[in-house]
Amino acid sequence: MPTRRKVNSVRVVLLVVVFILIIAGLGSIFVVKTGLSSTGNGDKEVVFTIENNESFDSILENLKKENLISNASVAKLYAKVSHNTNFVAGTFELDNGMSVKDILSTIQDSTKLKKDALVLKIPEGKWAKEIAAEISNLYDGKYSSEEILNQWNDISYIQTLTKDYSFLNVDDLNNSNYKVKLEGYLFPDTYFLEKDDSLDDITRVLLDRFDVMYKENKKAFDKSDLSIHQIISLASVVQFEASKPGDMAKIAGIFYNRLDQGMKLQSSVTVCYALYDDFNDPKDCETNPEVDSPYNTYLHEGLPIGPILNPGDEAINAVLNPEKTDYLFFAADIYNKVDGKVHYTKTYEEHLEECEKLGLNL
Fold first, then answer.
1. In angstroms, rounded to a whole number, what is the distance separating the alpha carbons of residues 181 and 173?
2. 47, 49, 95, 130, 222 from 58: Cα distances, Å
3. Spatial distance between the Cα atoms of 321 and 303, rounded to a whole number of angstroms
4. Which contacts (CB < 8 Å, 24+ apart) does range 254-262 have?
5. What is Dmax (Cα atoms) for the chain?
6. Are 103 and 94 in contact (CB under 8 A)?
7. Nearest of 201, 133, 129, 213 to residue 161 by alpha carbon
8. What is the CA radius of gyration of the chain?
9. Are residues 114 and 90 in contact, defined by beta-carbon separation less than 8 angstroms?
10. For the chain, which residues make up each domain, given as ranges?
């Protein structure tokens, strides 16, 4: 027969277990309730796009990134239980005052699609003048390419932007030799613009996206020995040089090796940008290393004076996290449009041999 002390001990243990279960249950209820509630009071509007064939998990993660939902797992569980996993590809106007139920209901309803959005697609590696031309076409000539480029070259305007964008530095950008002062900061992505957007509105949409990337990588930017402008300049060269993302970190590492050893970068893609309006074919870059330009890294030591295109996430991350190797040279098979393989070498002699095999004239 158990003693009274043992019985009391068992009761205490049971009470503790029950208490823990209650607390856990309340905690779960709190997490679920919070996860299904709105993340704000509706003061933040977001133009949210669902791509064709995009997965439901991807949609939920993007909603989380936009801070429209607080917990993707809770939202996914609710969607499955309530049979709300269907959705419509397209663009919607959402805000942070909407609950998970409201958001899921909206993205299932084709009548809620945003009808008048203008879609601007900027692939990685585009020049500012190409982006300006695309914007001009998108707005049916409301803004000319020349007008857009003039704004992106207006240092007084850029000075107003620096108040809102910490990654922009007037001292870096106030250079009369630049083709386009905002080159490098017009971040590649798909944008949904309004018909009545001003040039300032459009520019800020692109810079807002750059700001997202910058804040995500702020620690790496701060840790680098290069300035933000130098990082973007080098990333633009890496973006242009690498036909495949898998080569970017290694190519970035080679450029760091060359800089560390006091060698010129001698990147032919900087010649492409130096040629600018006279650039028609990649072969032009290989055969004009003497073109007189501060962008030309065959003539000038160090980095080009500024970015030579608008790099994307992968190229920027490659520069922030380069692959360490002993290589000092590389040659891309620019004549092989299918493969475009990059060949890496440690010595100039080996590099010349590879170039000869590839039919490249140095």
1. 6
2. 16, 11, 19, 30, 30
3. 18
4. 254/325, 254/327, 254/328, 254/329, 254/330, 254/344, 255/322, 256/322, 257/325, 257/326, 257/327, 257/328, 258/328, 259/302, 259/303, 261/328, 262/301
5. 101
6. yes
7. 201
8. 27
9. yes
10. 45-112, 118-213, 218-358
**For position 251, what pLDDT does the model report?**
96
Q: Distance between CA 355 and CA 362 in Å, rounded?
A: 8
| Dist. CA 204–CA 190, nearest whole Å | 14
| One-letter amino acid for residue 101 of the chain | K
Question: Burial letters for 343-362: b for 16+ Cβ neighbours within 10 Å, e otherwise?
Answer: bbbeeeebbeebbeeeebee
How far is it, in rounded angstroms, from Cα 254 to Cα 133?
34
The sign one gets for the Cα dihedral 315, 316, 321, 325 is positive
Indicate the burial class of 24 (C-beta count within 10 angstroms; 0-12, 13-18, 19 or more): exposed
- Check residue 192 and give its pLDDT: 82
Show Cβ contacts of residue 285 under 8 Å, excluding neighbours closer than 6 positions: 268, 269, 271, 272, 275, 279
- Alpha-carbon span 210 to 264, nearest angstrom: 29
C-alpha span between 344 and 251 (Å, rounded):
9
d(CA 25, CA 13): 18
Residues 6+ apart with CB under 8 A from 271: 284, 285, 286, 288, 289, 291, 295, 296, 298
Q: What is the pLDDT, as a whole number, of residue 13?
A: 44
The total number of residues shown for the chain amounts to 362
Read off the tokens for 47. Answer: 């133009």
> CA 40, 43, 44: angle at the middle one, nearest 5?
85
**pLDDT value of position 362:** 55
Q: Would you identify the CATH topology of the domain 45-112?
A: Dna Ligase; domain 1 (3.30.1490)
d(CA 163, CA 29): 43
Question: Averaged in consecutive runs of 10 residues, what is the pLDDT profile of the chain (362 residues)?
Answer: 53 48 52 73 87 86 92 88 81 90 90 80 95 96 97 97 96 95 95 90 95 95 97 97 90 96 94 91 84 94 96 97 93 64 88 80 58
Residue 297 near residue 264 (C-beta atoms within 8 A): yes
